[in-house]
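Hey, resending since the last one bounced:
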Amino acid sequence: MEKRAAILGSGHYLPSRVVTNHDLAALFETSDEWIVQRSGIKERRFIERSGIGASDLAVPAAKMAVEQAGRELKDVDAILFATLSPDVNFPGSGCLLGDKLGLPGVPALDVRNQCSGFIYSLSVADAWVRAGVYRNVLIVGAEVHSTGLEFTDRGRDVAVLFGDGAGAVLVGEAHGDAGVRAIELHADGVGARDLWTEAPASMYTPRLTPEMFEEGRHYPRMNGKQVFRWATEKMPEVALSVLGRSGMTIAEVDLFVPHQANMRINQMVAARLGIAEDRVVHNIQRYGNTTAATIPIGISESWREGKIQPGSRVLMAAFGAGFTWAGAVAVF
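The structure tokens again:
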């Protein structure tokens, strides 16, 4: 019988520092009403001090996921680390996490697909487990955005959106009806410049100039209207397509876990799919956009709240920089 992969356990970690919209309004021209109306975000978490990286946030999330799966850290035989905010430019944060978890020799791969990074990673883990290459694959999505945002009037449209956090799952061989049923991945670089951080960049000599710094080209920039238009088109599209691949219908979905970029996007996507609000996971109001961490955080919280139980059919969809977008269906 062909092997199938399943999500065996999940975990999450958020820094203790809560930053409200009112806190941001003290730094630049904005308001709680303005932020909530445009994004649904009320607060987000930031690291407590300098020196805390994405791999540090990943440690407790990873331990929680392994424990829930009934495994030990020594059972992890591969690491996939999805992030757009690695601790340092190189080496990858997966290597740093492996060292912090005490896993010498275990392969580690960083996945740079931004908001779609978790589902892209799930696709890799699914293939590895089904092929018998690895038995227990740890997937982590972790971000430290707060140290790379521009807290000024110029940068406010992006600065209000992002937060720090980590989510993790352990993927291993499925038993019973559980398992990853379908995954679909897409990308289109035509929108690359509509959501990116341009500098420092290896295509420039030098990679960062005083002029770039002064112009703020080392901060993330976004064409919000384009991102909104693409997201509200591609997320429902990939969700329906991956459901078709899985042999399921919308009516059979117990829980929808979308990437948390914008509350309005998620509500519009859910409405287009015909999924009732009580079957949609929202954590953006509390955490902001934690990019690669949003879906695994949503899974972990939902599992602990009883929204995910044995046999639950979970639909996931994401859209982000690249542009990249992806969908997955899993039975827990």
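The chain has two domains: 5-177, 180-331.

Sorry for the duplicate.
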